[in-house]
Amino acid sequence: MSDSRSIAVLGLGAMGHAFAANLLQAGFDVAVWNRSPGKASGLVENGARLAESPADAVDQAQAVITMFPDLAVTRDVLLSDDGALVAMTEGAILIQMGTLGVAETDRLIAEVGDARSDVVFIDAPVSGTKAPAQQGKIAILASGDRDRAGTVVEPVFEVLGNKTQWLGQAGQGARMKVVINAWLISMMQGIAETAQLADTLGFTTDDLWQVLEGGPLATPYMKLKMDMIASGEFDPQMAMQWGLKDLGLALEAGDDKALPSLSHIRNLWFDAVNAGHGEQDIAAIYAFLETYRR
Ligand SMILES: NC(=O)c1ccc[n+]([C@@H]2O[C@H](COP(=O)([O-])OP(=O)(O)OC[C@H]3O[C@@H](n4cnc5c(N)ncnc54)[C@H](OP(=O)(O)O)[C@@H]3O)[C@@H](O)[C@H]2O)c1
C-alpha cells in the first residue's frame, strides 16, 4: 500500500489550490492536476508533482481529493474512460469536497461503489471561502466510513480546516452542506439589501458597522462582505455562479414551497449572473441591486 501521506488534489480552483498549498506546507507528498495547468505553478515550486492527467495524479496516492464545481465535472474527471477512479491504488480513499448536491452525491457514491468497491468514499464538502481555506480554517462536513478512512483522512482534515464534524454515512455531508448554504446565501442577500437601504437613507457601510459592532448582530461574515461592498471590489471568495448553483441544489433538495425567499433569491441571482456578475464574489449582488435603484 502507498504512503498514507501521499495525496492527490484534483481541481486547483480557489479552494483546491488552497488545499494543495496547505498540504504541501504540512509536509504531505502532493500530486496535483488541473484542467488549466498554469494554476499549479506556485505549487510545483513548493514541491508538488504536476500530473498530466487525473489518472496520472492518483496512481501513487493513498487519498484523492476532488474539488470541482458540480457533478458533471466530477464524474468526468473520475469516471470517464481515462478518468482517475480506475487508476486509484487498491483501498485508497476518495475525499469528495466540492458542493455537488444531495441526489448528485448519492448518485456518485453509488457509481463509485459499483466501479471500485475497494475505494472508500468520504463525502466531505466544506463551509468557508477562499481566505479561510488559505488559512486552514474551514469547517469540514465529513461523512462516510470513518473507521476505515479515519487514520488517513483525519490528518488531512486537520491541515485543511479547524473543525471537522462527522455526520454519519456518506451523503450526510452533502445534506448538511445545502442547509449551511441556505443560511449563507440568505445572509448575503440580507447584507446587500441592508447596505442598499442604509445607502438610500444616507448612511455608509461604516456607519452601519459602527452601530452593530460589539453586538450580537455583528458577524465577521457581515464585516467581510460590507468591506467588499464599500470598496466596490468583488474578487471572488465565493463566485456568484457557484452561489446560484448552490441555490438550485438547496431548492432541489428541499420543499421549495417552504423556501419562498430562497426561490426569489435564485431568480435574482440568475439575473445577476446573466448581467455579468457570475465570476465576481456573491457580494456583487449589491452592485446588481444598484441597477434597480430609481
Ligand atoms: N469558493 C468558495 O467559497 C467555496 C466554499 C465552499 C465550497 N465551494 C465549492 O467548491 C467547489 C469548487 O469551488 P471553487 O471556488 O474552488 O471554484 P473555482 O475557483 O471556480 O474553481 C473551479 C475548478 O474546477 C475546474 N473546472 C471547472 N470546469 C471544469 C471542467 N469542465 N473540466 C475540468 N475542470 C473544470 C477549474 O479548472 P480551471 O482552472 O481549468 O478552470 C477549477 O480547478 C464548488 O463546488 C463550490 O461550490 C466553494
Number of domain units: 2
Overall SS class: alpha/beta
Poorly predicted sequence stretches spanning 5 or more consecutive residues: none
SS field, number of helical segments? 13
Mean pLDDT: 96
Global outline:
globular
Architecture of the largest domain, CATH level 2? Answer: 3-Layer(aba) Sandwich
Tell me the distance between the termini: 65 Å
Bound molecules: NADP nicotinamide-adenine-dinucleotide phosphate
Could you walk me through the main structural features you see in this protein, from its secondary elements to its overall organization?
- There is one protein chain.
- The chain is of the alpha/beta class and 294 residues long.
- The chain has two domains: 166 residues, NAD(P)-binding Rossmann-like Domain (Rossmann fold), CATH 3.40.50.720; 115 residues, N-(1-d-carboxylethyl)-l-norvaline Dehydrogenase, domain 2, CATH 1.10.1040.10.
- It is 52% helix and 13% strand.
- The chain is built from 13 helices and nine strands.
- The chain has a six-stranded parallel β-sheet, sandwiched between helices. A three-stranded mixed β-sheet has the order 7-8-9.
- The protein is globular, with a radius of gyration of 20 Å.
- The model has no long low-confidence stretch (mean pLDDT 96).
- The site of NADP nicotinamide-adenine-dinucleotide phosphate (NAP) has 24 residues, from helix 1 and helix 11.
